[in-house]
C-alpha cells in the first residue's frame, strides 16, 4: 500500500469511490469537434467525419444539421477520384465563407496592423499604421484601435455593423478567457481589463490574446495546423513568445497564462529582463537584449529616440564584416536560443518547431552553430530532432492570427450554448 | 497577405482547400471516453455521462452496452440523495473490479518493487527485492523481472495465466508506444526493445514507461487526477522526472519522449549530467549531484560501494548542525529546483504541482527559501502561484503507477479495435 504522505495533503483512493463532482470537460461537444474538423479539412464528406471522430453517422448528421442551421457550414459538391465529370458528384461539407466577417489587429512597439477576413479566412482588406516605440496608456491604445478599425473598414467598404468580432493581439501576459492584460510592454498600467474596455469603445465584441498565440492561431487555422496535430511556434522579435498546439488545439494552460517560454529562466541571477526578473530567455535573445550590448560593441552612445532596428541592422552588418564583439553578441544569442529550443524539445517533443517573427531574417539565429548546439542540448535518443522551420512573416501574419482568434470566438459563441460574446 | 517565407518551407493556405489526408485523431472513440469517465468517477449515472460528454443519451447507451459486453464495466445501484432507503435505487455505472488483474513493476537503482491489482486498482499483493545500485545488462534485468513476478504471484496465490498484462517502469528515456528504452541509468545498452524482450520472457504482454509517467498515472488513476484536469508531477530521486496531465490524460509528446524536465538546461556549459550532457536540471538537484559535492563538503573519500543514501543522510545531518558547506549544497539544489519548477509554471500554468519521490522527506527541497525563489522566478501576473503539494511516497506508489499503465493498456486494447496486446 502506498504510504500516507507526510503532510496529509492527499491520499490514494482506490476502487469505486463515492460520486465525485463532475469533471471539467474531457472533450468538447460533438458539433464543435465536427466544425473544427470541417474547418481544418476545407472540404470533408460526412462519412469520413464519422470515421475520424469515432461516432455513428447518425450523430454526425445531427451535428452537421445544427451547424448548417446556424449558418456556419454548407454542403459543397466535390468530384470523386476517377469520376472525371461522369456520374453524380459527392457531397462534402465546408465552412460558409460569408457567414461572418471579422477584424484582426496586432499592436506592437513599432506599428499597428489590421486585417478584415471572411469566415473562411480570406483577406478582404488590410491596413498598417507605423508608430513611435513607446508605452501607451489605455486611452491612447483604445484611440489607436479605433483609428485602425475605421481605416480598415473604409478600405473594405464595410461598416462596423457588418463585422461580427474583433481579435486584438498585444505582447505580454494576457489571459484571453477573462480578457485581462496582466503586463504588456505596450501598456503603462498592469492588470488592465482590455477586452471589456475595447468592446465598449469599438461597439463590437473584442477578444484579446498574447501575440505569440496569434501567430500560433494563424498557423493552426491557415498554415501548418492543417497537416499537423502537435507543434510549437516560437516568436522572436521585441520579445520571445511561444504558442503550442496539442491535438489540433492551442494549449494555454489551466488559467490561460502558460507558454511563457521567453520568461523561463536559463541562468540563475542572469541578465535583467524587461519583465523585471533576471535570467529570462528573452533577456539574452530578444531585440532589446541585443541592442543593449550593441551600443557597447559599436561604441554608440544610446541617443534618445534611436531606433532599435537601425542599431541591430548596423550590428548585423558589423558582424558580417568580421567585428568580433558584434559576432560574440549574435553567437551568445544563438546559443541561448539553442537552450530555449532544446528545452522545448525536451519538454514537449513536438512534431515541428516553427520559428516566426521579423527578426528571423537574421540568419545567425538559425545558423548551423545554433542547430548544432540544439543537437548537443536535446536529449540523446538516437532519433532525429524535430524539424525546425523558419517563417519570416511580418505583422500581417500576426493580424491574420488575431482574425483567427475572432473567428474562433465567433464559432465557439455560436457552438457553445450559454456562452455569449459581450458587445455594447 | 502574409509574405512568402524565406525558405519556401510552408505557405499560408486559405479558404476551402482541397481534401487533405485524414488528420490524426482529435478525439478518442466515444466508448473509450465513456470508460475513462466511469473509471475516474467511480460510479456515474448514464444521464450524467451524456451531459458531461455532450452527446446524446442514445450514444452513451450504445457505448456502455459495448463496454458491458466486453466485461469492463457493470451496473451498480446507488442511493439517490434524500432516498433514505425508500423507493428504487438509481442505477449507475462502475468499473468491474474482477475484469482483469495486472502486475505493476518498478525497477530502480536501489530496489525492484511489484504489485498485483484488480481492474478497480485494489491491491492484491506486493513484493520488494532490494538490490545493489549498479547498471544491468538486459538479461539480468529480465531475470530480475521474472523473479519478482514469480514471488508476487506466489504471495497472491495466482499463476501467470490469471494475469492480463504487466506494466514495467524504468528510469530514463522511454517510448511507451514502441516499447523501446533509448537510455536508462539501470541498463548498460542504449536503444533496447525492452517491451518485446520482457513480453517474450514473461509470457505476458509487457508495457514499459518512464518511471515519472508511472507516478503521474498513479496520481491520475487513484489520486489527484480524480479531481483535477491539468497538473504536473515532478519526481526527485536518483534523477528528476516529470509527468504532465492535460485534460485528464497524460501528455507524452508527439513521439512519446517529452516531459524530460530533468534534462532541460538551466545553465549553459553547466554541471555534468549522467546523461552525458551539461547543465541539465538533474545535474544540480538529483541524488548523485548532491552526492558528488557531499564527498567534498564532508571530506569523505568516495569508497567503493558507499551508499548514496548514507552519504546524503550524513550531509543532511551536517547541514542541520550548521555545516556551511553542507548547507550551501542544499541551498544551491533548492535554488535550481526553484528554477525548474518556475519554468514548469511559466510554460504549463498548471492547476497543481505535485512533488513526489523518496527524497522529498528532505525538507530543504521545499523549504521556505525555495518557495520564495519560485515566486521570484515565475511570471508576475498578480495571481497566486499554483499550489505545490509534497507526496513523499515510496516505490510502492511507482509500482501502483506501473499497474495503472497495465490497466490503461488492457482497457485501450479492449476498447480500440485493431490494437492488440502482443503476448506469447
TrEMBL record, chains A, B:
This protein is called what? ROK family protein
Q: Which parts of this chain are annotated as the region Disordered?
A: 1-23
Domain of life here? Bacteria
| PANTHER family membership | GLUCOKINASE (PTHR18964:SF173), ROK (REPRESSOR, ORF, KINASE) FAMILY (PTHR18964)
Leader sequence range is none
Amino acid at each position: 500500500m502506498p504510504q500516507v504522505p507526510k503532510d496529509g495533503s492527499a491520499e490514494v483512493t482506490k476502487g469505486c469511490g463515492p460520486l465525485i463532482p463532475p469533471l471539467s470537460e474531457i472533450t468538447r461537444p460533438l458539433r464543435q469537434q465536427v466544425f473544427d474538423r470541417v474547418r481544418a479539412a476545407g472540404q470533408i464528406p460526412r462519412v469520413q467525419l464519422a470515421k475520424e471522430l469515432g461516432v455513428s453517422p447518425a450523430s454526425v448528421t445531427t451535428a452537421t444539421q445544427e451547424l448548417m442551421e446556424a449558418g456556419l457550414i454548407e454542403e459543397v459538391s466535390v468530384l470523386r477520384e476517377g469520376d472525371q465529370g461522369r456520374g453524380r458528384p459527392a457531397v462534402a461539407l465546408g465552412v460558409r465563407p460569408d457567414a461572418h466577417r471579422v477584424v484582426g489587429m496586432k499592436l506592437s512597439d513599432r506599428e499597428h496592423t489590421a486585417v478584415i477576413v471572411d469566415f473562411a479566412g480570406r483577406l478582404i482588406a488590410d491596413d498598417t499604421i507605423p508608430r513611435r516605440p513607446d508605452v501607451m496608456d489605455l486611452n491612447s491604445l483604445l484611440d489607436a484601435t479605433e483609428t485602425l478599425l475605421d481605416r480598415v473598414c473604409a478600405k473594405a467598404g464595410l461598416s462596423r455593423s457588418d463585422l461580427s468580432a474583433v481579435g486584438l493581439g498585444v505582447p505580454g501576459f494576457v489571459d484571453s478567457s477573462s480578457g485581462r492584460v496582466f503586463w504588456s510592454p505596450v501598456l503603462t498600467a498592469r492588470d488592465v481589463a482590455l477586452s471589456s474596455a475595447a468592446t465598449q469603445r469599438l461597439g463590437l465584441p473584442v477578444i484579446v490574446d498574447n501575440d505569440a498565440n496569434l501567430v500560433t492561431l494563424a498557423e493552426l487555422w491557415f498554415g501548418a495546423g492543417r497537416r499537423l496535430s502537435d507543434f510549437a511556434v516560437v516568436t522572436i522579435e521585441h520579445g520571445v513568445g511561444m504558442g503550442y498546439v496539442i491535438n489540433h488545439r492551442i494549449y494555454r494552460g489551466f488559467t490561460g497564462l502558460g507558454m511563457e517560454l521567453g520568461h523561463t529562466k536559463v541562468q540563475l541571477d542572469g541578465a535583467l529582463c524587461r519583465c523585471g526578473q533576471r535570467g529570462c530567455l528573452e533577456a539574452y535573445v530578444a531585440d532589446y537584449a541585443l541592442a543593449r550590448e550593441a551600443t557597447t560593441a559599436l561604441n554608440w552612445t544610446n541617443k534618445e529616440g534611436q531606433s532599435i532596428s537601425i542599431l541591430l541592422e548596423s550590428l548585423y552588418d558589423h558582424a558580417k564584416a568580421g567585428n568580433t564583439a558584434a559576432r560574440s553578441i549574435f553567437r551568445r544569442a544563438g546559443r541561448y536560443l539553442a537552450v530555449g529550443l532544446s528545452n522545448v524539445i525536451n519538454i514537449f517533443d513536438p512534431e515541428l518547431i516553427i520559428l516566426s517573427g521579423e527578426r528571423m531574417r537574421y540568419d545567425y539565429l538559425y545558423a548551423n552553430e545554433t542547430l548544432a548546439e540544439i543537437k548537443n542540448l536535446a536529449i540523446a535518443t538516437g532519433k532525429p530532432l524535430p524539424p525546425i522551420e523558419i517563417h519570416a512573416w511580418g505583422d500581417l501574419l500576426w493580424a491574420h492570427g488575431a482574425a483567427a482568434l475572432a473567428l474562433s470566438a465567433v464559432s465557439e459563441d455560436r457552438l457553445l450554448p450559454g456562452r455569449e460574446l459581450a458587445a455594447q
